[in-house]
Amino acid sequence: MSNQDSAKKHSVKVSIMQREFTIACTEEESPQLIEAAAHLDTQMRTIAKGSQILGMDRCAIMAGLNISHELLQLKKNTGDSKKINSKLTNMHDKVDKAIEDFQQIGL
Questions:
Q1: Are residues 15 and 41 in contact, defined by beta-carbon separation less than 8 angstroms?
Q2: For residue 41, what is the domain's CATH number?
Q3: Tens place of pLDDT for every residue, the chain, 107 residues?
Q4: Partners of 24 in the beta sheet?
Q5: Owning domain of residue 100
Q6: Alpha-carbon distance 68 to 97, whole Å?
Q7: Which residues lie closer than 8 Å to 20 by C-beta, 6 or more apart?
């Protein structure tokens, strides 16, 4: 398959809150789009179940806020992990250097 073929758009139908939406995406993006729509549907249904008075628009906004919050927490945790890995690598290098120095002086 050429790059042109892989970038070719096609339609994917997803269902969110019993409403069907047709969205254009590449074939490679289809599985992630379907998964994202299912996640949004689950979030919206959870919110709607908790409050019978919310309209679909408000459910969508609340679900969007919840998902955005999850994303920001994941990004923060990933950033923290990178900092920790960097510090561990730095400490590992220092220990290796100290061992090397001790070996050179015969300890």
A1: yes
A2: 3.30.160.880
A3: 445 555 688 899 999 999 999 999 999 999 999 999 999 999 999 999 887 767 888 889 999 999 999 999 988 888 777 788 788 888 888 887 778 777 777 65
A4: 11
A5: 3-105
A6: 44
A7: 13, 14
Q: What is the pLDDT of residue 107?
A: 58
> Residues 11, 23: contact at Cβ < 8 Å?
yes
Instruction: Return the residue matching tokens 């090397």.
Output: 100
Q: Which residues contact 22 (CB under 8 A, 6 or more apart)?
A: 11, 12, 13
DSSP letter at 51 equals: -
Cross-strand pairs, 10: 25
Give the tokens for residue 20: 């069907």
Q: Which amino acid is at 8?
A: K
- Distance, CA of 79 to chain centre: 13
Two tokens at 6? 């892989």
What's the domain count of the chain? 1
